Amino acid sequence: MPKTKPAKTNAVFPYVASLALLAAYSFLCLLVYADSLLAVNKPGRMFGTGLHSGEYCADAAYRLQFRSHIPSEVHHLYSTALVRSPADYNIFLDYFIHLRYLECCKDQTGKLMRGALERNPSSVRLYVRAVNYFLQTGNQTEALLYFQEAVKMQPETLHQLFAIAGERVSVEEIIRVTPRTTETLPILAQVLARKGPETKHEWLRTIQELHSKEVEPSLNMKTAEQAMKFGELELAKQYAEAALRHPETEGQARKMLAKIELNQSRQKKPKQVRRN
Q1: CB of 125 within 8 A of CB of 153?
Q2: Torsion angle, alpha carbons of 230, 234, 237, 239, to 10
Q3: What is the pTM of this model?
Q4: Residue 53 φ/ψ, nearest 5 degrees
Q5: Of 239, 151, 153, nearest to 191 (Cα)?
Q6: CA distance 119 to 109
Q7: Pick the residue with more confidence: 177 or 45?
Q8: Which long-range contacts does 70-77 make (Cβ < 8 Å, 24+ apart)?
Q9: Closest of 101, 102, 79, 93 to residue 128, by C-alpha
Q10: What are the tens digits of pLDDT across the range 39-79?
């Protein structure tokens, strides 16, 4: 009786089936992860306090802006983030930036900026941003309050703030809100000198107030240089002579006095009339 050959089994089929199942499982896991990132704001979902924190929701809102989305979803995510992390000023600032980009919700945007400042009152950069925002939205009173606070914390910001406010706020108002200290007045004088002849009178008042206080010898030289720019040679000479009395500014003062003397001699020299 002839022997029958056993049926050949396909050893490849189980391997291929296993790979297919593994690929399907991986795809489902990816869908679940994407859903947790982009649909975290679905109503009725339960979140843990760790993974879906305020920071997580804010990050999801930020990422969602770069995808096809319904605008209300971003707002809902940011609102959720503010509730879950009410002390995080970065969330207030991120939501503020988002609304500013959309150019909407003026009242809410102002509240967000105030909220960020309340939670991080030591950030000079936030105050500068607040000054710019409230001036752009027509709230000059509040803008000048933040202007004053920023200059108190860091006098050097007066250069940047003057540039921001200069087109919308009068020089007199800027001078009024600038703190009257030996740290801020020299910077104010420098800013006014750079602006040009139209602020000469304000500059004169500022340096008079500055030098009525006890100041460093180097400020005499700076004032002399500014006076030269305004063409106030006698005033420049006065402060250069004051700087001459201090060893650290003596050399600069001598050069300045020589320059002043040369300019004065040129002014006194009569102009020659050409004859035809």
Answers
A1: no
A2: -70
A3: 0.73
A4: -80, 180
A5: 151
A6: 16
A7: 177
A8: 71/102, 73/41, 74/98, 76/41, 77/40, 77/41
A9: 93
A10: 444 433 333 334 468 888 888 887 878 776 778 888 889 98
